[in-house]
């Protein structure tokens, strides 16, 4: 039997897609995005055998009593051996969040998670549902978002609350989102690079699209203190001593 932590505030999707003009404050949205990308970057580049989640979406991001993000549902996840750049497998995921290249070729890489996370960023910016949105021209959310971004006219699709509270940060997050949802996986940044870029926004640093993709990361093997786990050097939570890797192994051994 597995005992899971009770997550009292449900999913990010539930908090975003509410009736009325107000939803999560912008500061919470940006923080949740950073907490989520830290978790995914940990899976991709810090543990001994990289793991691709394969179903990154707002419904799989849980929020606890302090609205701290916890990435959930590893039922579709796959190990990727370090010596391989990807694996061929049947496409799996959720409509609206699928990496189109993975869907059509069956080649799974960590950039598929990057694409799905980019869709989550678009969702945070717009409060539109990726699986059901359709513009007046019949475009899905991702295509319509990229079209408006290239035209320099994102305001019609952005959430008014995000514009009001986020200011210039909204434009920066939009730039990162567009980098993540590029059609070719090779043109997308790594999850670690996305993490650095989002952290840079919170720290009021400037990140351009070019250095988002090209920036070299030298500390991939540093243990990251992310919301999903507690640093074992800290006594802040002595009851939570499992790493994310150990948690995943338990889930694989005793599936739900």
TrEMBL record:
<keyword id="KW-0547">Nucleotide-binding</keyword>
<dbReference type="InterPro" id="IPR045274">
    <property type="entry name" value="WAK-like"/>
</dbReference>
<dbReference type="Pfam" id="PF00069">
    <property type="entry name" value="Pkinase"/>
</dbReference>
<dbReference type="InterPro" id="IPR011009">
    <property type="entry name" value="Kinase-like_dom_sf"/>
</dbReference>
<keyword id="KW-0067">ATP-binding</keyword>
<feature type="domain" description="Protein kinase">
    <location>
        <begin position="1"/>
        <end position="208"/>
    </location>
</feature>
<dbReference type="InterPro" id="IPR000719">
    <property type="entry name" value="Prot_kinase_dom"/>
</dbReference>
<protein>
    <recommendedName>
        <fullName>Protein kinase domain-containing protein</fullName>
    </recommendedName>
</protein>
<dbReference type="GO" id="GO:0007166">
    <property type="term" value="P:cell surface receptor signaling pathway"/>
</dbReference>
<dbReference type="InterPro" id="IPR008271">
    <property type="entry name" value="Ser/Thr_kinase_AS"/>
</dbReference>
<dbReference type="GO" id="GO:0005524">
    <property type="term" value="F:ATP binding"/>
</dbReference>
<dbReference type="GO" id="GO:0004672">
    <property type="term" value="F:protein kinase activity"/>
</dbReference>
